[in-house]
Every structure is written in structure tokens, then in C-alpha cells.
TrEMBL record:
Record family assignment: Belongs to the PrpD family.
A Pfam family it matches: MmgE_PrpD_C
Name of this chain's protein: MmgE/PrpD family protein
Region (Disordered) location: 1-20
Superkingdom, taxonomy of origin: Bacteria
Record organism: Ornithinimicrobium faecis
Residue span(s) of domain MmgE/PrpD C-terminal: 257-406
UniProt cross-references to Gene3D superfamilies, sorted A to Z: 2-methylcitrate dehydratase PrpD
InterPro entries recorded: MmgE/PrpD_sf, MmgE/PrpD_sf_1, MmgE/PrpD_sf_2, MmgE_PrpD, MmgE_PrpD_C, MmgE_PrpD_N
Record-annotated MmgE/PrpD N-terminal domain positions: 79-223
Biased composition (Low complexity): 1-19
């Protein structure tokens, strides 16, 4: 798992010699410390900030607040709250929720310096994208929670850049974050999923602080860790900034529905197929056909809580057909437990294909809905709304932020109030423990 080899000329000898390849930690540290964001990168950063702060504020009144308040640091609390309602953005090639880790850490460690916060965010986000992609789809399908396995290291980079660490210190911080770089998908549908994210953010901040204080570590621990976690040789780690036009390669997917990203496409497909809400009693069968890999995180086939519904393909069919909008209300306990919803869950038949390819958007979702009048409506969808190929419109982002603020019971904040300079103050005010 080597990264960048450099070739140099030995001074005065006229001979060309090879300098040993940088290890993963050193190469990532060099990239993070030296790469400058473009205007396009900064535009992505601003959208990520708006999206992440909005979904964190939406969790202000969430039942998990007393538990989250027990976490030690702001970065941990904000990261957990930004992830708990599963409405945060996603980097598809790495299958990681990049911003739920990197935005809170940037705001917590850069203070009110907006330029430094945005720069730190992009450095950590770029590292997380590359590291998660290197671990690969095999890592995710093995059951690891990729957001937390690569998130702790990314958080260390964000905090390290915000604190002005040297490249050597950044590499040390990356290595010091390795012990916390874990988390499994069995946590999905429980409080542990978002708490894993908070703990990863917290560990990264602490790793940067330890490196700044003079702690030592072997940077090659990262290679050992990647090997143990199942790094994918088909997706080599890329750290050369010239190899990508953007600091976050391939872009970020914005969720339109507040549920696991694996549900965005089937909900969209069923909405387009049905053309609007239907009466549950008019449905006699629902058939979904989708590639096997796209359902990896959907671990609840018979959900009974709102959290379980966020990871249920069967419930995706129910809410898509029953609800005017599959928003926050559609993923509450009462909504999932509706008799009509449970009936549609039982009527849903799923066929998993072995179509080749990795990721949550490989292939397409095909849907069929049988009705009591003897008709069958069909449809197919490859790209859901909000995906990098179908980015959200300004109107969609404005509506999402407004919905989030309303859910959080916040009436004094407008989307224009959410900036890199004001974000930390806003979150510390609205999400203070006990508030």
C-alpha cells in the first residue's frame, strides 16, 4: 500500500537516486498541508457546512440529546447530532458520511476563523475520501462502519490543520488516531451508530492535541491497520493532488429523504412510479429488484421503530406509497408502526441481483406495484435526487434547511446565518448541554 515515490539527484554526484516512498500517513499529511482549495472546492465546503449544521440543529430536540450531552467535547456532540437523523451528506466511492465528522471538528477547532475552518474541513474531507476509497467496498460489505473507521483519522487531519501542525506532526496525529478507527454496521438502527461518529470525531481531535504536545507514533501503523481492516488492492490510495481536479473527488451526495442513503433511490423510484400517494388497500403486491450490494446497510426487514425504518428497504416502499413527502414525520415510531405501513411492508417482495459493480448506486432499482383493479405500474431509476449526477437545486437546499430548523424548534436562524465564521457560535448556543 505504497503511495508517492519521489526521485531526486544526489548533490554534486550527478547520480539519480530514489528517495524511499512516503508511507500512507506521511503522504496524507503532505497532501493535507500543501494542497490549496480552488473556488469550486470552497463552494462544496460551503454547501457541506450548510447541510451539516442544518441536520445537527434538526436533532436539537431528539430523544438522544441527554446521551449525546454526556460526550466530552463539542466536536463529539455536534458530530453525533449531525448523524443521528441520517440526513447528512455521503461520499459514494468511500461510502462515508464525510461532513458529519469533518464539519463539526473544523468548527470546534478553528474557532471563528472561517478561512481556516473551511481549509481544515477540505483537508480532512479529502483525506477521508481517499482513505475510505482505498479501504474499498469490500471493507464496507464486510460489516465495518466506514464513516468511523476512516473518520477518526480524518478528524485528526481537520484538527491538525486547524491548529497549524507541521507535516510531521500531522503524520503523527494520523497514526495516533488509528486505535479509535473502528465501528461496525451492527450498530445501525441504534443510538450507537451516531455515537460511534461522535467518538471518532473526539478521538481525532485528541490525536491532534497529543501530536502537538510532542507525542510520538510510528506512521507505518496506518499500513498495518489498513491491512487488518481489509484494504482493497483494486482501489489504491491516491494522495497526489494532481490526480484529482477536486479536493473531494467525485463529489458529495446530498440526501433528500432523512434516511440511509441506500433508501434514497428506491423511495425516488416508487414515487416516480406511483405518481403520488396511494390507498394502502389498493395495493396487492410490491416488487423491488435491485443489485445485492445496494442493500448492504439495510439490516431491518420488519422495522418497528423510526430508527429501524431508516434502514429498511421494505419500509422505503411503504412510505413512498403512503406519504405525501417522506420527510421527518415519515420516519418516526408512530409512522413506522401504522397498520397500513406494516401491511405494505409485508406485501413487499425483494429480488437481489448479482450485478457486478461496487457501491450503493450500482445498476438501477426496478419497481412494480400491483393494484386491486388488476393494473401494474412499473418504473426504474438509476440516480436519485441529490446524487452527484443530480445535485440538489438551491430551492431544494433551502427547503431542506428550513425543514431542519423547524424540526429543531429554531425560529431565529436563517440559512444565510450559517457560515464558517458563525457556525461554531451557532452550534454552541443552540446545542449546549442541557439546552
Amino acid at each position: 500500500m505504497s503511495t508517492v515515490d519521489t526521485i531526486g539527484t544526489e548533490e554534486g554526484s550527478g547520480r539519480t537516486t530514489e528517495t524511499p516512498a512516503r508511507g500512507v500517513a506521511e503522504a496524507l499529511a503532505h497532501w493535507a498541508a500543501t494542497t490549496e482549495p480552488s473556488p469550486a472546492d470552497l463552494e462544496v465546503a460551503d454547501r457541506s457546512l450548510l447541510d451539516t449544521v442544518a441536520v445537527a440543529l434538526a436533532a436539537r430536540t431528539h430523544e438522544i440529546r441527554p446521551v449525546v450531552d454526556a460526550l466530552e467535547t463539542q466536536a463529539a456532540r455536534w458530530a453525533a447530532l449531525a448523524h443521528v437523523i441520517d440526513f447528512d451528506d455521503l461520499h459514494l466511492p468511500s461510502t462515508t458520511h464525510i461532513s458529519t465528522v469533518c464539519v463539526p471538528v473544523a468548527l470546534a477547532t478553528a474557532g471563528h476563523d472561517g478561512d481556516i475552518a473551511a481549509r481544515a474541513y477540505l483537508a480532512g474531507a479529502g483525506v477521508m475520501a481517499r482513505l475510505g476509497t482505498a479501504l474499498g467496498w469490500k471493507h464496507y460489505t464486510a460489516g465495518w462502519h466506514a464513516t468511523t473507521t476512516s473518520g477518526a483519522i480524518a478528524a485528526a487531519v481537520v484538527a491538525g490543520v486547524a491548529h497549524g501542525l507541521t507535516q510531521e506532526q500531522l503524520a503523527t496525529a494520523i497514526a495516533l488516531a488509528v486505535p479509535a478507527s473502528g465501528g461496525v454496521q451492527r450498530a445501525f438502527g441504534t443510538d450507537a451508530k451516531s455515537l460511534q461518529v461522535g467518538l471518532a470525531a473526539q478521538a481525532g481531535v485528541q490525536a491532534a492535541q497529543l501530536a502537538e504536545a510532542g507525542a510520538s507514533a510510528d506512521p507505518r501503523a496506518v499500513e498495518a491497520w489498513m491491512s487488518l481492516l481489509g484494504g482493497d488492492p483494486d482501489h489504491p490510495l491516491v494522495v497526489d493532488p494532481a490526480s484529482d481536479s477536486d479536493m473531494i473527488p467525485d463529489g458529495l451526495a446530498i440526501k433528500v429523504y432523512p434516511a440511509c442513503y441506500a433508501l434514497q433511490r428506491p423511495i425516488g423510484a416508487l414515487r416516480e412510479t406511483a405518481g403520488g400517494p396511494v390507498q394502502a388497500q389498493d395495493v396487492t403486491a410490491i416488487r423491488l429488484r435491485t443489485p445485492r450490494g445496494t442493500v448492504t446497510p439495510l439490516v431491518h426487514s420488519r422495522p418497528h421503530t423510526g430508527l429501524e425504518g431508516k434502514f429498511s428497504l421494505e419500509y422505503a416502499a411503504a412510505t413512498a406509497l403512503l406519504d405525501d413527502h417522506s420527510g421527518f414525520g415519515a420516519f418516526g415510531d408512530e409512522a413506522v408502526q401504522r397498520p397500513d405501513a406494516q401491511r405494505l411492508v409485508e406485501l413487499t417482495q425483494i429480488t437481489l441481483t448479482d450485478e457486478t459493480g461496487d457501491g450503493l448506486l450500482v445498476g438501477a432499482v426496478d419497481v412494480e406495484v400491483d393494484l386491486t383493479d388488476g393494473t401494474t405500474v412499473t418504473g426504474s431509476l438509476d440516480l436519485p435526487p441529490g446524487s452527484p449526477g443530480k445535485p440538489p437545486t438551491e430551492a431544494e437546499m433551502t427547503a431542506k434547511v428550513a425543514d431542519c430548523l423547524q424540526l429543531g424548534g429554531i425560529t431565529s436562524v436563517a440559512p444565510s446565518d450559517i457560515t464558517w465564521s458563525t457556525g461554531a457560535r451557532l452550534l454552541s448556543t443552540q446545542l449546549a448541554p442541557g439546552s
